C-alpha cells in the first residue's frame, strides 16, 4: 500500500490525478503504475491499466 501512495504522489507531481496501483503475486511486485492519461495522451492510461500492462510484461518475460 505504501508503494501505491508513493506512485500516487508521483502522479500528482506530474499533473495527473493522484492514483497509484501495485500488483503483487506471491508476495512479489510484478506490476505497478500511476495515472498517465495526460502524459501519454491516452484515455486508457489509468493507474490500474498501466499496472496490469506492466504485470503482463513481467509474466511474459
Keywords:
3 helices, two-stranded antiparallel sheet, alpha+beta, 61 residues, Cytidine Deaminase, domain 2
Q: What does this entry look like structurally?
A:
This protein has a single domain, classed as Cytidine Deaminase, domain 2 (3-Layer(aba) Sandwich), CATH 3.40.140.10. It is an alpha+beta fold and about 60 residues long. About 50% of the residues lie in helices and about 20% in strands. The protein has a two-stranded antiparallel ribbon with strand order 1-2.
Strand percentage, roughly? Answer: 15-25%
CATH class: Alpha Beta
CATH superfamily, please? Cytidine Deaminase, domain 2
From the coordinates shown, what is the CATH architecture? 3-Layer(aba) Sandwich
Largest beta sheet: what is the strand line-up? 1-2
Q: Provide the number of structural domains.
A: 1
What level of helicity do the residues show? 40-55%
Number of strands: 2
In terms of per-residue confidence, which ranges show pLDDT below 50 for 5 or more consecutive residues? Answer: none
What is the typical, i.e. mean, pLDDT? 98
Rg, nearest Å: 11 Å
Instruction: Label the structural class.
Output: alpha+beta
Biggest pleated sheet = 2 strands, antiparallel
Order of helices and strands: HEEHH
Number of helices: 3
Amino acid at each position: 500500500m505504501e508503494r501505491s501512495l508513493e506512485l500516487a504522489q508521483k502522479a500528482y507531481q506530474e499533473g495527473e490525478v493522484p492514483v497509484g496501483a501495485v500488483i503483487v503475486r506471491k508476495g512479489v511486485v510484478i506490476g505497478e503504475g500511476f495515472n498517465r492519461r495526460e502524459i501519454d495522451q491516452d484515455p486508457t492510461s489509468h493507474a490500474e491499466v498501466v499496472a496490469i500492462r506492466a504485470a503482463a510484461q513481467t509474466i511474459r518475460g
